Amino acid sequence: MQDFMPQWPLKVLILSSDPRNADRLRLGQEHRDLQVAIRGTRSASSLDVVNEPSCRYSDITAALDRIDPRILHFSGHGGEDVLYFEDVQGTAKAVQKQALARVLRQQKELQLVILNACFSLEQGQAFADAVGLAIVSEGSILDQDAIDFSREFYTALGYGQRSYIEAFERAKSALEMTGQMKVHLLQRGTSQAQDVLITEQALTQHLLEGDSFYVQFQLTGLPVAGHFVGRDPEMEATERHLLPTKTQTGRKIHILHGLGGIGKTQLAIAHARSINIHIVRSYG
After folding, report:
1. Could you tell me the pTM of the whole model?
2. Which of 123, 110, 109, 118 is nearest to 137 (CA)?
3. Are strands 92-96 and 82-86 parallel, antiparallel or unpaired?
4. Does the structure show a pLDDT above 80 at 230?
5. Cα separation of 33 and 38, whole Å?
6. Which of 152, 155, 206, 209 has CB 3.0 to 4.6 Å from 171, enough for a Cys bridge?
7. What is the average pLDDT score of the chain?
8. What order do you get walking across the sheet with 92-96 strand by strand?
9. Is the separation of the CB atoms in 152 and 135 below 8 Å?
């Protein structure tokens, strides 16, 4: 494991977004607590935090060029595939996480991305692959937990001699004492998703012929809900479309679409689980 030591002096760019048509966040409180915490650390003079409040989607690249940060910190609302910035009216504007990750890949000085937003674990690996490290959260998060994690993380960095990973572990441990926020640190090229050890063609053939075979089924690293509320019509439609038949054996694509946070990922995971059980019982 690499050390991932911060390169001092350390510039942090915070992109804060609190659209007026979404649940209001205590972003001012987060920034105030962060500044107070950093002020008392040994490295305060070398830790420069710049906040971009009410950040519009059109402000992102200009802020990156102006600050050229080591750390990019997003505070705001998130969905499974998007982060919500603001438009000129102050209402929510969805920005695709994958598209933003491609922009960040061009920032040569950037070492770490922190997404202090709900559902930021989804697509989080794209940010880690783009810059090296990404800190993301699982599921929905409470305002106070987000504030507490930020304060603990930057305080740990401000006292110096700590790597990003060590500061993350310190903040995570502190948060676990009182908070419910589940945070994860992702590294470049270390996606937790596991490859299935069988080809698409072989799987289709085995399903049709009823041969015995072994599929390594893994959901490690995916945000699986503890209590999935079944959606029988959607599940039936997904299985009907994706399961191979004797007349349809080629590649199939099934798109789940909708607003961020309505459960598309959980539906896909539930489908994967049901198919795995079907394969094991019928052909294993």
Report:
1. 0.67
2. 118
3. antiparallel
4. no
5. 9
6. 152
7. 80
8. 77-78, 82-86, 92-96
9. no
The structure tokens listed for 17 are: 């977004």
What average pLDDT score do residues 51-72 get?
96
Q: What percentage of the chain has pLDDT greater than the value 70?
A: 74
CA 115 to CA 75: how far, in whole Å?
7
CA 27, 33, 36, 40 dihedral sign is negative
What does each C-alpha distance from 42 to 36, 92, 158, 160, 165 come to in angstroms?
Answer: 13, 38, 6, 7, 19
Closest C-alpha among 214, 229, 237 to residue 263: 229
Residue keyed to tokens 């609302």:
77
pLDDT of residue 265 exceeding 90, the answer is no
Nearest Cα neighbor of 131 from 71, 80, 67 is: 71
Nearest Cα neighbor of 122 from 58, 69, 192 is 192
- What distance in Å separates the CA atoms of residue 162 and residue 4, rounded to the nearest whole number? 9
Contacting residues for 104 by C-beta, under 8 A, at least 6 apart:
64, 72, 110, 113, 127, 130, 131
Predicted confidence (pLDDT) per residue in 149-185, tens digit: 999 999 999 987 689 999 999 999 998 888 788 899 9
Q: From the CB of residue 180, how many other CB atoms can be counted at a distance below 10 Å?
A: 12
pLDDT band for position 274 (cuts 50, 70, 90): low
Summary count for the chain: helices (H), strands (E): 9, 9
Beta 10-16 vs 82-86: how paired, if at all?
Answer: unpaired
pLDDT on residue 200: 44
Q: Which residue has the tokens 């690293």?
A: 221
